[in-house]
Amino acid sequence: MTPFSAEDHTYMQRALALAVHARDAENEIPVGAVLVLGGSVAGEGWNRNITLSDPTAHAEICALRDAGRRVGNYRLPRSTLYVTLEPCVMCAMALVHARVARVVYAATDPKAGAAGSVFDTLISEQHNHRVQVEGGLLAEAASRLLRDFFRSHR
Fold this sequence. Notes:
Blueprint: H1 6-26, E1 32-37, E2 40-46, H2 49-52, H3 59-71, E3 79-85, H4 89-97, E4 102-107, E5 132-135, H5 139-152
Parallel strand pairs: 3-4, 4-5
Antiparallel strand pairs: 1-2, 1-3
Helix pairs in contact: 1-5
């Protein structure tokens, strides 16, 4: 695995800021996502399941929806998604269908991760589109944010 670039760090920091926003502004599980296309932010999202009463309103889906509206297309080839938690199966398939080129995630999800932790959805050879996956960027900060959130809600 190649080391993460300064640009990767910048966008993951933004995703972490969106996760904090989810926690502080909407009392949502703190997960944030930033979709980058052509060197600029095309979409952003954070968990909004409770706020929107929508089980599909994960950070990744919200970022894809935002990018789709801005770009005017549901396909987002050559894009990179930065997300603070390893995507679940639902989000992984949305990323495959959107033709996202690369996913960079912070913390692994040992219960539902679909980038190799539990499922291999993002990296499955069964799909006609392959997503490059890199994990662990700012993992401790993202993990701490999630741990602290769940401790405070028990």
